[in-house]
Amino acid sequence: MRRRLLAAAATALAAIAVAIPASAALNHAATVSTNPVDYTPNVLDGEVRAFALVGDVVVVGGDFTTVVPAGKSAKLKRKNIFAYRATTGEILPFAPEADDVVLTLAAGPNNTVYAGGAFQKIGGGAQRGIAQLSLADGRRVPAFTGEINWGDTRSIVTFGPWLFAAGSFTSIGGQKRAGLARLNATSGWADTTFDAKLAAPNLTRVKLEDLAISPDGNRLAAVGAVEQAFGQYRAQVVVIENAANSARLADWYTDVYTKPCRAGFETYLRGIDFDPTGTYATIVSTGRKWGDHLMCDTASRFDLRGAGLHKPLWTNWTGGDSLYSVADTGAAIYVGGHQRWMDNPFGKETAGKGAVSRPGIAAISPVTGKATAFNPKREPRGVGARALLATPYGLLVGSDTEKIGGEWHARLAMLPL
């Protein structure tokens, strides 16, 4: 029955040929299963850092070299990026051979995918930090020529004719842009009318960690090492209104991330996602420090309505363990990292009063802010689950470890609806 349902979903996706964005766009009716599907490929080394869904194809990025089909022994060379059928696990010939880590992926038009990372060569040629790739042959799309000057691209989201890119670069697509740009999705060149003027005068540099775009394309949110946007103070979180048109800084802001966490963290924010309505956003963090009102190692939900200062609707503490990724499906807010516990505001690398065990992955109720009963136990915890993507088939989980739901799924798993 599960395979028939997945096949039907794949047929529907192929028929409408809609690219699933990296940000929240799906409204699941319920929390996903804790029993992973049996057919996802295994990644035998390194770490999975990114996903994109293009039709019925899952594209996987990270810093790995070898993959193997489920239940098989034949090893396939795939350097930092590969693709497989979402409903069968069949590994495709697609092999663009990135020369460095792929940190972010986003579905493109006409059977293509956008890739971002620290690479300088990918898809058979030199193109630094960002490229568009054909799923048919793994080659770079010749028309997309934008690239970064140095550093990396850490997050890509798309909307209509635009591709939004964030990272640690200072120039992209032919324009000077500190950490954030709006690119023409066909040419890769930066839009000259979009400049958020990000700055970080008290930090080493601007370095954005993650982006999210609302389903209607109106709001773009960015988190990372940033202190100013459009000439105004913003501490680690920037929300841009009318992002796909005449972009401007939103009146919305928060001050809860002004206090530092552990020394050495110029930003301790790691991920952000909108809910399927675009009304709420959840932010996850690392930081390794404790104390009253500190937002280190937390998941926090914000209401995006209204102007001015906003405090979290709720905050869920891990008690000292990092959260790296977040996916909001409406039914649940999934968070991934190397956490041992959730609901742990009194923990200091310990299980404090009220803490619940949720190793490596958890689901939080959007209403209460408490961990749900969902507990597939990603073990060992390793560095953490850095990649989560909600799809019509279920939740994709990417990490650096090999066990989830009591089963062996090396660095990649899908928890079905």
Helices and strands in order, then pairings?
Blueprint: H1 2-16, E1 42-43, E2 48-54, E3 57-62, E4 66-68, E5 76-77, E6 81-85, E7 102-108, E8 112-117, E9 121-122, E10 125-126, E11 130-134, E12 153-159, E13 162-167, E14 171-172, E15 175-176, E16 180-184, E17 207-213, E18 220-225, E19 228-229, E20 232-233, E21 237-241, E22 248-249, E23 252-253, E24 269-274, E25 280-285, E26 298-303, E27 308-309, E28 314-317, E29 323-328, E30 333-337, E31 341-342, E32 356-357, E33 361-364, E34 387-390, E35 394-398, E36 403-404, E37 407-408, E38 412-416
Give a structural overview.
The chain has 417 residues and is mainly beta. It has a domain at 196-240 and 259-375. The protein has one helix spanning 2-16; strands at residues 42-43, 48-54, 57-62, 66-68, 76-77, 81-85, 102-108, 112-117, 121-122, 125-126, 130-134, 153-159, 162-167, 171-172, 175-176, 180-184, 207-213, 220-225, 228-229, 232-233, 237-241, 248-249, 252-253, 269-274, 280-285, 298-303, 308-309, 314-317, 323-328, 333-337, 341-342, 356-357, 361-364, 387-390, 394-398, 403-404, 407-408, 412-416. The longest helix is centred in the first third of the chain and has 15 residues, at 2-16. This is PKD domain containing protein. Pfam families: DUF5122. Residues 1-24 form the signal peptide.
